[in-house]
Amino acid sequence: MASYKQLAEYCLxxxxxxxxxxxxxxxxxxxxxxxxxxxVVTGLGLGVPLMLFGSGYAALVALGKVPAxxxxxxxxxxxxxxxxxxxxxxxxxxxxxxxxxxxxxxxWKFLAFRALVSMGFAIGFLWMQEQLGRFWWPHxxxxxxxxxxxxxxxxxxxxxxxxxxxxxxxxx
Amino acid sequence: xxxxxxxxxxxxxxxxxxxxxxxxxxxxxxxxxxRKLPDxxxxxxxxxPTVFLVALGVGMGESYMWPRLVLVFGPDIRWLFMVGxxxxxxxxxxxxxxxxxxxxxxxxxxxxxxxxxxxxxxAAAILIYxxxxxxxxxxxxxxxxxxxxxxxxxxxxxxFVGVLFSLLSVIYxxxxxxxxxxxxxxxxxxxxxxxxxxxxxxxxxxxSGMFAFGYFPDDAMTSxxxxxxxxxxxxxxPSGMQQMWYTLQLRDSGAGMGAHIPKIxxxxxxxxxxxxxxxxxxxxxxxxxxMAKWKGWRKWVTxxxxxxxxxxxxxxxxxxxxxxxxxARENPNVASLIEGGDRDAALKxxxxxxxxxxxxxxxxxxxxFIALIGLNATxxxxxxxxxxxxxxxxxxxxxxxxxxxxxxxxxxxWGVILFxxxxxxxxxxxxxxxxxxxxxxxxxxxxxxxxxxxxxxxxMLLPKAIRPGPVRNVIIGFGxxxxxxxxxxxxFRFGVAVG
Lengths: 172, 499
Fold this sequence. Notes:
The structure holds 2 protein chains of 2 kinds. Chain A is mainly α. Chain A is built from 7 helices and no strands. Chain B is mostly helical. Chain B contains 18 helices and 2 strands. Chain B is globular. Chain B: The chain crosses the membrane at residues 44-65, 77-96, 117-142, 148-171, 178-200, 220-241, 305-328, 361-382, 408-427, 439-462, 474-496.
């Protein structure tokens, strides 16, 4: 149980990226005068799947299945996850508007196009996750084995920096 | 993991050159003492000083000029964008070669070759970049969302940037983090919007157009469109002097021999700034261990150039082109407005088209991202301009060394801010109409000129072991011919500078 809690805690930055996407969509819907219910549905329809898939990727990194900070696995993961997240969003939106859930027209083309665009999302996701994570992970390092493990993956970076510091010396 | 900001931990002290010291003689100025090259960070991270170049480079070219050309001439015209951005990726790598090998800016390199070259860039930077017109697109988009007049937003943004940069202890670290986050948001956001409104067919045509090499319709050769095409190529990726400023950001990030140069501080902490050495440094290229480290640095910067710079620039422009195509499909009026060249009207029409096609959110979101692009460019531009001018002033204006580099930076920053506010309130934001052509000419001319400077610095000032190979030289040489050739062809054939 404690392990799940730690995993969830570690995944917070990744989930935040999906939450940010949902918040932007929902927040702006409200801002431009859409009914509150509509704004919430749009925000959740996009934000929740992206949060879940984002957390899924972070969990793979935390469990050592995927190396931290490397682009290729993130690209492969999101080429599947991103189209699915947008499919969920489309189905949910159609449900709210028409009253019954329905797939978008030409679902395969729908998925294929979003699979191509996913490359961009993968870069942005990885980037933002690292930006947020470098504030969050050191904060929970003492009590969270997953954060510790991921930060340790950067050990050779620290080693390289230390060696460099020694090599450079104090003279200029 | 923030790799680059950690480089600030490398201790630096003022130079204490001794008479017997080993040095590298480069050009006419003071020789560079030999120092150890620091170890390169592993390239698994996806952060680096290239965020500045992305922030500056992803602007109106990507979000407006190229989508416009695609609507006018069809997606096949995008091969020229592909050539432009790829060329810029090579320029980035060569700029980095000089900056990482010496810890000097490319301006210093130009002065080592021939000082008037450096003075040309000094004057051109002031003429091109002191006008606050670049703020208008982002601030106008913000006005569409909030109703706040754009001049008010622009003036507040100017003062905000000045105060912020003055209060910071080390400016580079903060800006790298902030721009990293903002660009991350931009990339995530544009992907999501493009996924929501675009279609497979739009994307297919946009991407295949990037490989339609040689396509050049007759209409593009007219006096109305050729200058626009040339201007758009020059604005593919970083334009004007932005690549030259990148060498300063590399230095401040501590990349390569830049680790031996102190960082620029905000005005509040300017007193704590370490004294600046009077020139850069060189490493021992005959030592295999040092050369192995150099290869590590080249790998690191290549990773930055390919994934961050080339990848993100391509992604954003493809996304915006897909958006423009879907907007034109929804509302034919958009196509005629975009072709007409009224930027604000065209952006508004695109926003409306998205709003009617999907939901009002999409229209607002579109403006939010134009505003975000404007904010990124403004933050990057003010910092870079001040950095470049401070660098040249400190080293080459007699008597300037009694001020620290950080104080000179603050002086240029506040100078351009106050001038910008005055112009926004009382004058033409883009510069006086009479000199607009000259400014556009200078901006593209600087790009051809820096290709020539790069060929000279990297082949004449660097030790043989780390000079560029023949292929790189041919590509940069092609860049010089490409930019200058198009510019002068435009001028002599049609009598106008770039559009």
